[in-house]
């Protein structure tokens, strides 16, 4: 393995934490004996092109500094290759790092963790989800939560999480379940009214909401959480329990396990790792051992 490590940075992650986090992470890697070069793209496509070039040139590892969006970008460069992925999680959600037990919002500790894993060959292969040519590591969300994302992304103010809190209140006011068609592993298609459907390779999204609490990114299967046709009052009662995963015990919630999932619903967008994929229908498959991660 090459001793040169490539760091790819999202300078806007966590309201600017990404730009500041690269330095202590790089210092930790250099102290461990690695040569480090940093890539900062002028746009997401530019950053991805530079990351892919580094992988093609044989970099020893690609280290993503930022949040889940930056990790998602890095996955597009390393998935299906032997190049290890390191994560310095300094974004708002950091659900990929949470799923794998990696340091969160401590760039020096994250840099040391990546260095120790690379020097000690403590690498592990984990599963990824794939939609067409796009990879994701945590959760593909659709339904009520994706509508909240749609609305929040259209809002210019306020900044940060408050924007999405306001978007959620606005969506609740106009809320009604969506008619879904769900296919699992090529079997019988279920036609149901659902509030949301989440396809989980990892357990959480949205900064620790454990929407698929039993998901294991090493078992070759998704956990598919379906919240049925509950009303606004029920949704508000169930919502707080999502942070501990208790919602799966509610009678309106069903959980399935599958390696391939087909989702269709009119007027619903799919989001994976918090990034928009486009409107349903979408075909999702779990690819075992698709990426090698440097970490404990």
UniProtKB/TrEMBL annotation:
**Family label:** Belongs to the diacylglycerol/lipid kinase family.
Q: What is its EC number?
A: 2.7.1.107
Q: Which cofactor does it need?
A: Mg(2+)
Segments forming domain DAGKc: 1-134
Q: Does the keyword Nucleotide-binding apply?
A: yes
InterPro entries, sorted? ATP-NAD_kinase_N, Diacylglycerol/lipid_kinase, Diacylglycerol_kinase_cat_dom, Lipid_Phosphate_FormReg, NAD/diacylglycerol_kinase_sf, YegS/DAGK_C
Chain segments annotated as transmembrane: none
What Gene3D superfamilies does UniProt report for this protein, alphabetically? 2.60.200.40, Probable inorganic polyphosphate/atp-NAD kinase, domain 1 (3.40.50.10330)
- GO MF annotations in UniProt: ATP-dependent diacylglycerol kinase activity
Q: Where is the signal peptide?
A: none
Protein keywords = ATP-binding, Kinase, Lipid biosynthesis, Lipid metabolism, Magnesium, Metal-binding, Nucleotide-binding, Phospholipid biosynthesis, Phospholipid metabolism, Transferase
Q: Please identify the protein, giving its name as recorded.
A: Diacylglycerol kinase
Cited Pfam families? DAGK_cat (PF00781), YegS_C (PF19279)
Where does this protein have coiled-coil stretches? Answer: none
Entry-linked PANTHER family: LIPID KINASE YEGS (PTHR12358:SF106), SPHINGOSINE KINASE (PTHR12358)
């Amino acid at each position: 393995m090459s001793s040169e490590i490539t760091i790819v940075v999202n300078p806007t992650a966590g309201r600017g934490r990404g730009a500041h986090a690269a330095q202590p992470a790089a210092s930790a890697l250099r102290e461990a004996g690695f040569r480090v070069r940093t890539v900062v793209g002028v746009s997401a496509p530019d950053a991805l092109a530079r990351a892919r070039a580094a992988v093609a040139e044989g970099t020893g590892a690609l280290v993503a500094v930022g949040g889940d969006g930056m990790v998602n970008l890095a996955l597009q460069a390393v998935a299906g290759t032997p190049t290890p992925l390191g994560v310095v999680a300094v974004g708002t959600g950091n659900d990929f790092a949470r799923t794998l037990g990696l340091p969160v919002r401590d760039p020096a500790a994250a840099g040391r963790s990546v260095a120790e894993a690379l020097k000690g060959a403590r690498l592990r292969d984990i599963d990824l989800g794939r939609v067409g040519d796009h990879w994701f590591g945590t959760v593909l969300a659709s339904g009520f939560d994706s509508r909240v994302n749609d609305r929040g992304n259209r809002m210019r103010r306020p900044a940060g999480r408050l924007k999405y809190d306001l978007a959620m209140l606005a969506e609740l006011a106009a809320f009604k379940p969506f008619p879904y068609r769900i296919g699992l592993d090529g079997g019988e298609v279920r036609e149901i009214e659902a509030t949301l459907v989440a396809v989980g390779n990892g357990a959480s999204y949205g900064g620790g909401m454990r929407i698929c609490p039993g998901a294991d990114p090493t078992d070759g299967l998704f956990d598919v959480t379906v919240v049925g046709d509950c009303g606004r009052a029920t949704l508000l009662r169930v919502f707080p329990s999502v942070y501990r995963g208790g919602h799966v015990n509610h009678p309106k919630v069903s959980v399935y396990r599958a390696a391939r999932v087909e989702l269709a619903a009119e007027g619903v967008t799919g989001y994976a790792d918090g990034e928009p994929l486009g409107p349903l229908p979408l075909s999702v498959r779990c690819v075992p051992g698709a990426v090698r991660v440097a970490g404990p």
